[in-house]
Amino acid sequence: MIGEWIAALFAAFVIDPVEADIRQRLEEMQAPVQVVAQVGDCLRTTGPMLVDRASGDLWWAATTAISVTTGLTSPAELLDAENPACAPIAGYLISADAEA
């Protein structure tokens, strides 16, 4: 019960804002439309894994939510670069973070 509640909060306060932030950053970087379109596919596969982890590890969920909210953790760090749907997105974001 509590795990489901934590998972719902994590999705609302981390996954949804991360998706919006990633889309915005990619559009600002003028990434190809195909890469921006992959954000939804990436988070549909990576999002449930993150939510499962959050519901099972409350400390990780809390620290990750705070880190993402305050900007200490980049959204790119939450993406699974091994996931074919996320690799191009993670590559663009990581290269942008390295240049900043």
Separation of the first and last Cα atoms = 42 Å
> Tally of extended strands?
0
Fraction of residues in H or I helices? over 70%
Structural class: mainly alpha
Question: What is the arithmetic mean of pLDDT?
Answer: 83
Radius of gyration: 13 Å
Strand content: under 5%
Total number of helices: 4
Q: What would the principal axes of the Cα set say about the shape?
A: globular
Helix/strand order? HHHH
Identify low-pLDDT runs. Answer: none
Quick take:
The chain is an all-alpha fold.
Question: How would you describe this structure to a colleague?
Answer:
By secondary structure, the protein is mostly helical. The protein contains 4 helices and no strands. Helix 1 packs antiparallel against helix 2 and helix 2 packs antiparallel against helix 3 (58-70). The termini are far apart.
Characteristic terms for this protein:
100 residues, mainly alpha, single chain, 4 helices
Outline the fold blueprint:
Elements: H1 2-28, H2 33-56, H3 58-70, H4 87-99
Helix pairs in contact: 1-2, 1-3, 2-3
